[in-house]
Amino acid sequence: MPKPVQWSSELDNALSDLLTRRRVSLRAAERALGVSRSVLAKRAYAIGARETAPGAERGMITSAPLPPGHPKTWGAICEGLSGQQPDYPLPVFL
After folding, report:
1. Would 3 be classed as within a structural domain?
2. Under a CB-based contact definition with an 8 Å cutoff, are residues 23 and 15 in contact?
3. pTM, whole model, 2 decimals?
4. Based on the structure, what is the number of domains in the chain?
């Protein structure tokens, strides 16, 4: 279990320097400071060293999901099938 960290202005400055000036990843900052990435990400967001909150990119999807069986997802649907991939079943209007 990680040891608890007493945040100080020195740690904040070091974290800000690593992320903004040196442009290192959170993984590299984790190794340099000895604190977990999740704690670093939350602290970096709190002090303004990162533009977005961790995981905010996932919430930025603006389009609706594709319906089941959509032509764009046909390859993923048939991926596990053995043999030749079947053609996409185009709708038949009678």
Report:
1. no
2. no
3. 0.51
4. 1
